[in-house]
Specification:
single chain, mainly alpha
């Protein structure tokens, strides 16, 4: 069940409880599961309970023994939630901390900036959107799919502030593919048309709302990346030793890495957005094969396994942000490794 499901169609409190129980059964997925549970609690109106889940993730425990994959995201969500039930001072302090941490993931930047925006802190929201864009998009030839909301949000706030277009606004206009332009969607005067007696004004607003709904549906239809499966060197050696028929799929480790990068670049050149790399392990692959009632030696199982891992939120976005480590695990920057 997706957290965005309307309240009349789901018992959000019950769904949150189910996800918490599932997190206890699968501690390796606790971060993703508890974040979804917290989203359901927020939608149910129980924001204090959602905060407790965010605190549970941020404090090491039996349910989250390993370091978080994205602690800045959890802190950003916690701040946004706190502000919604009158914990403004604590929320502001967390937001300042997220900005100071300068995360390389665009999601925390978008969340804290939108929290500021929703409470009429437009100047601070603009500064936050801009900081994130400057960090993640400077000298980047093509903005990754995950950074698009950063550019769109910045564009929206700048329109409300009455600022002239700059290069990033123009880039946001270029990336936006809906039939109604961002300038029209983000027009501050739109709210006036809702109180208009002129049918033409109302019809125009309905068209804009349909375009926005189309954009949201498009984003929701891609909840996880199109991910390529990456076997670390040790895992690949163990996989081939245990299941020799798969050797035909992986002639060598170097070929494996090269084929991943080549496939991702081909997908990107064809216009496919939201790409990623997901690491595989032999034990989880064997467990997946058992759940599917199929032999792990069956090569047709490999893409299904990759899709399942991506759906669990385990994929890393490709291409990595400027200066970030390469997806292959070499420890070198992507630009000095497979990004050359």
């Amino acid at each position: 069940m997706r957290p965005d499901t309307p309240a009349e169609n789901v018992d959000h409190a019950a769904e949150a409880a189910r996800l918490e129980r599932t997190a206890g059964l699968y501690p390796e997925d606790a971060e993703a599961l508890l974040l979804r549970a917290a989203a359901h609690l927020e939608l149910s109106g129980d924001r204090p309970a959602a905060t407790k889940l965010y605190d549970r993730l941020l404090s090491p425990s039996e349910t989250a023994p390993a370091p978080l994959d994205n602690p800045s995201l959890v802190r950003a969500l916690k701040a946004s939630n706190l502000w919604e039930y009158d914990h403004e001072a604590e929320a502001r302090a967390i937001i300042d901390g997220v900005r100071a941490a300068a995360p390389r993931d665009p999601a925390p930047w978008v969340i804290v900036a939108e929290a500021l925006e929703s409470h009429d802190e437009l100047e601070a929201a603009h500064e936050t959107f801009t900081e994130g864009a400057r960090l993640l998009l400077t000298d980047v030839p093509e903005p990754p799919y995950a950074t698009h909301p950063l550019l769109y949000g910045r564009h929206r706030v700048r329109r409300m502030l009455g600022l002239a277009h700059d290069e990033w606004d123009t880039l946001a206009d270029t990336l936006h593919s809906m039939p109604i332009s961002l300038d029209e969607l983000h027009d501050p005067k739109r709210v006036w048309s809702l109180g208009s007696d002129n049918p033409a004004d109302l019809e125009a607003e309905i068209s804009r709302l349909r375009a926005e709904l189309g954009a949201y549906r498009e984003a929701l239809s891609r909840p996880f990346p199109v991910a390529m499966l990456h076997w670390p060197a040790g895992e690949l050696a163990e996989l081939i030793e245990a299941y020799p028929p798969l050797a035909a799929e992986y002639p060598s480790y170097e070929d494996h890495l090269a084929s991943i990068e080549a496939a991702l670049r081909e997908l990107a050149s064809s216009g496919t957005p939201n790409l990623g790399v997901v690491p595989g392990t032999v034990p989880s692959y064997e467990a997946f094969a058992a759940s599917e009632g199929t032999s792990p030696a069956d090569p047709t199982l490999l893409p299904q396994y990759a899709t399942t891992l991506a759906a669990r939120g385990l994929a890393t976005a490709w291409p990595p942000q400027r200066g970030a480590a390469c997806w292959c695990g070499s420890g070198r920057a992507y630009g000095e490794c497979h990004g050359q």
